Amino acid sequence: MTRRPLRAATAASLLLACALAARPSFAQSDADRAAARSLAEEGIRLQGAGRHAEALERLRRAQALFDAPTHLLLIAEEQAALGQLVEAAETYRALARRPASDQAAFRRAQEKGENALAALEPRVPGLVVEVTPASVRDLRVTLDGVALPLALIGVERPTNPGEHSLEASAPGYTSATARVKLEPSAHRTARLTLQPVAAVAIAPAPTAAPAASTAAPAPAQPPPPAEAAAEPTPPPAAVGPARYGFFAGLRLGAAVPAGKTGSFEGSPSDDLTTIVKSGGGGEIDLGLRAFEHFALFGFFEHDVLGKGSSFVETPGVTDDFTATRDAFGAGAQLATWQGPGRIGFFGEAALFGEQIKLTETASAPGVGSCTQTITGKSNAGVRVGGGVHIPVGESFLISPFASVAMASLRHIDRSQSGTVTGCTTESAAYDASSTEPHQVWFVGVGGAYYRDSH
Questions:
Q1: 192, 175 in Cβ contact below 8 A?
Q2: Which helix (H) or strand (E) holds 52?
């Protein structure tokens, strides 16, 4: 949303800088400068279309023709968009190290690069590779097939987000491998344990029987003892620490009641929809996530429901009616999503308490009014549901979902007051003589902010 104006401004700065730059750089002719400008403009168009790999290729070629801070700024943006956070940070640093320019467009590019670098640096993941034993001869460690300098063993190394493969090998040991997944801002440790190859004793080769001789045969030499088998070493430890985080979310949707009301004071049980009908509502969630897939959360839900079919309109009487449902509880969630860019599914279950409140005021001109409030409270209920997690950026989720809450009304408080004859001020309380279950279906969409820590 906010990057398009930035890109437009960057594009304008780029064109202005290329037009005004007077000092020769890599480009030595007007034709080369024009070609660099054309490549940069094409790169900006591809950037705006989301074709980041192609945009990066065009911008690098433009920089090869004409050395400009505006080119470096755009290159760093595209590297970051492609998940090349380490390379993007280095490009921003190269931009910051350049001498101050007398060109306004170049100075603006350097200022933007400094601000972008400050925001990017905390997002660059770090990976520590540990090898046991660490002092073996001719040790070779590779990261994604590329040799890792041994000076980096045990030292955190900035590494791009994504899945990476590690392998360690040395003569006399079996190779050790591991895979590690890095999220932006993650700091993880990968441990590789080399297993020594057990030595096998080699018996001496047989020789031909010697010719008959009067000399006494030499005493037989015992075979050399087999080398002791190497002590077994423990298996490699799990890669990286567990992830933890928190989230806060809001859900909005439609609430659809169903089921029975239960019996109170001898009155028969009835359909809940005779009292209230469908409406809408919202929910606030707060939770703690652990081990990437499991979460504990608490919630508060407030629904506004409609008037059920048992309420009959009377001519000449104004009938004001409100019905609300409040539920609060806690539960657990299992999810398959693991971070930015991964759409997944989730399921959840929760226990909750519930209150349904009805308030009706009937009034007629010249007669008066009567207000009645009925508040029903439920036994502890159970809610189950699930949906889809759709990541938006690095810290937000959009989640279409559906759930059903199941409970039984166990107690009713009733109060009445008014000015109409027969509508006296009174209050009463009733416990259920028989409870029957009712349900409230909730279908909608939610949004959540989440933050991980390691």
A1: no
A2: helix 52-65
312: region left, alpha or beta (phi > 0 left; psi from -120 to 50 alpha):
beta
- Please state, in angstroms and rounded to a whole number, the distance separating the CA atoms of residues 417 and 427: 9
Return the CATH fold of 126-196: Immunoglobulin-like (2.60.40)
Concatenating the DSSP letter of every residue in 69-128 gives: HHHHHHHHHHHHHTT-HHHHHHHHHHHHHSPPPS-HHHHHHHHHHHHHHHHHGGGS-EEE
Question: What SS3 class is residue 352?
Answer: strand
Q: What is the pLDDT of residue 265?
A: 76
> Is 28 buried (19+), middle (13-18) or exposed (0-12) by CB count in 10 A?
exposed
Place of tokens 């003589």: 433
List the domain boundaries for the chain.
3-122, 126-196, 244-453
Question: How far is residue 322's CA from residue 252's CA, in Å, rounded to a whole number?
Answer: 19
For residue 411, the SS3 value is: strand
Mean pLDDT check: name the lowest of 206-210, 238-242, 267-271: 238-242
What's the order of all strands across the beta sheet hosting 162-169? 146-147, 140-143, 162-169, 176-182
| Contact between 46 and 7 (Cβ < 8 Å) | no
**Most confident of the ranges 24-38, 308-322, 347-361:** 347-361
Residue-wise DSSP of 289-335:
EETTTEEEEEEEEEEEEEE-TT----TT-EEEEEEEEEEEEEEEEEE
Closest to 199 measured CA to CA, from 159, 167, 246, 231: 231
Distance CA 119, CA 125 (A): 13
* Dist CA 187 CA 158 (whole Å): 9
pLDDT (tens digit per residue) in 439-454: 999 999 999 887 766 4
Among residues 388, 406, 383, the alpha carbon closest in space to that of 444 is found at 388
Q: Is 205 left (phi over 0), alpha (psi -120 to 50) or beta?
A: beta
What's the length of the chain? 454
244-453: CATH architecture: Beta Barrel (2.40)
Name residues whose C-beta falls within 8 Å of residue 156's C-beta, 6 or more positions apart in sequence.
126, 127, 128, 187
CATH topology of domain 3-122: 1.25.40
Helix (H) or strand (E) holding 288: strand 276-290
Yes or no: say if 147 and 123 are a contact pair by the CB < 8 Å rule: no
Dist CA 343 CA 103 (whole Å): 45
- E-assigned strand segments in 308-425: 318-335, 344-364, 368-378, 381-392, 396-418
Contact between 66 and 41 (Cβ < 8 Å)? no
User: pTM surpassing 0.85?
Assistant: no
Please give the backbone phi and psi of residue 443, each rounded to the nearest 5 degrees, phi first. -130, 130
